[in-house]
Design goal:
Elements (H helix, E strand, L loop, with lengths): L1 E6 L5 H13 L3 E6 L4 H7 L5 E4 L6 H6 L5 E4 L9 H6 L3 E4 L5 H16 L15 E5 L3 H12 L3 E5 L5 H6 L3 E2 L3 H6 L3 E4 L13 H4 L7 E4 L8 H10 L4 E4 L6 H8 L3 E3 L9 H21 L9
Parallel strand pairs: 1-2, 1-3, 3-4, 4-5, 6-7, 6-9, 7-8, 9-10, 10-11, 11-12
Bound molecules: 3-phosphoglyceric acid (3PG).
3-phosphoglyceric acid binds next to loops.
Amino acid sequence: MKVLIATQKPFSAAAVAGIKDILSSNGHAVAVLEKYPEQSDLIAAVADADALIIRSDKVTAEVIEAAKNLKIVVRAGAGFDNVDLAAATAHGIIVMNTPGQNSNAVAELALAMMIFMARTQFTPATGSEVMGKRLGVQAYGNVGRLVGQKAKAMGMDIIALDPFLTDEQIVAGGAKPVHSVEELYSNSDYLSIHIPALPATIKSIGYDLITKMPKGAVLVNTARKEVIDEDGLMKALEERPDLRYVTDVMPDNYEALKEKFGLRVFATPKKMGAQTAEANMNAGLAAARQICDYFATGNTRFQVNK
Ligand code: 3PG
């Protein structure tokens, strides 16, 4: 089978070598498309691919349509909002992710961002410490749980909201459960967002929730920019000069936010949460193994479009 690794934001060279090694030793041919400037490059490259490994690359209906031999797409990572699942399903294409493989990298970045804001973006201005502050974690899955556990080790008090977990599971993961977003936001000095971008979550965090946060609170977004209502965020920051926002996913209105609020906001220029050597290796190799396993045994354990 021909496997295309299509990554606008490439894996490390070592991870690519490891992916190629797994695929070729299982009898598959490998092609690599990295840093491609246009979506049309991806559309051209998928024409003869049987399998596709991607990151945040956009697998639209047009890509699916152009990929006449495609049988499986593996998103090396957690979020699969970049894949048109309906189009894939309509063409009988399996879509998988590699849950958990890059979680530690994202969790470490969330903590780094908290401290970066606590220390006024590493300027000499007097900052504060995270010890003794309360951290709210919105969604206590693979990333959220790691953020909670690591923050607890720094002396923070952890509360978490996750409608898919029982209170017992949240407690076992080291946090105190809360049962509504209002309760979560009202009680969090730091709030770390780990919800996926879904129709129900898109723009779900806006003025009403953000202004519920206690005085001096920091909102940390290493999830997806789409979950924030950017107009609501702007209004909340205007009305509440004590609030701050830090994000790994640059908002569309970042220039305006930066101009108005200076050190109270920060966004990475390009999403970097999962961009570590370890996460590249873990997610990339897992994707390669899942493809080999699917072709060899039909294993669809990580399929997300069942
Ligand atoms: C994910 O959903 O796994 C993360 O957002 C990482 O995305 P990336 O592979 O594009 O860095």
